[in-house]
Amino acid sequence: MHALIVVAHPDPDSFTHRVAAELARGIAEAPGGHTAEIADLAAEGFDPRYNNADRAGYGAGSAPPPDVLLEQQRIDRCQALVLVYPVYWWSFPALLKGWIDRVFSNGWAYRESPGQKLVKLLGRLPVHLVAIGGADAGTYDRHGYLPAMKTQIEHGIFDYCGAPIAGSRFLLDSHARARGALLEAAHDLGRGLFIQQSCGSGSAHGGPERQVACSQRAGKSLHAL
Ligand SMILES: Cc1cc2nc3c(=O)[nH]c(=O)nc-3n(C[C@H](O)[C@H](O)[C@H](O)COP(=O)(O)O)c2cc1C
Fold this sequence. Notes:
Number of domains: 1
Bound molecules: flavin mononucleotide
CATH architecture: 3-Layer(aba) Sandwich
Structural class: alpha/beta
Number of helices: 9
């Protein structure tokens, strides 16, 4: 299986990029011959600004702009979408938010038209989220940032399109904590990514016992690290 790892950080030497590289290495080293490709949105010069060509295509059934089409095509080629990003203001960085705004378009990610019921089009696309935050877990707990981000990102974006959230991780306190341990955790996540995905989560995929068994096989795979 093939994973597309989308990274939104301007510095290729940043911790965020090192996390993405470790994930890719873990995926490639896992049994099963899996592959991973890194989409470095900053280096590729993706323009996150929603523009009039995007607007013209919105719901009109016309083809999206060429840069958006290329992004949709590379997502269509993968069996897992992994988003690796620094938390900026308790959310996605603007580059990644703009990528979602433009690429997850009406007609490709979902279908919506006046008087019609919403059709979710991305049921085939498991999504893994890896957020790197400078603040510590206590800060996230005290202010309710984890549920807020979960509602906004997991429910508001991916559930809307029907894309299942196969994993959601927060690597917190990223400046103060030993980064080696976080990188090791990222590597483990990569190794377990497709195992966890094939196990699924929750009762729709075999119930809690199966989930626990799968999590053990996948290594450190549940929630905040
Ligand atoms: C503009 C900006 C906003 C940030 N907002 C948050 C935030 O809301 N919560 C948080 O935990 N960290 C925040 N941080 C810290 C980053 O998440 C952290 O520095 C980054 O993930 C570390 O990875 P890096 O070394 O790859 O940049 C922010 C950093 C910047 C530059």
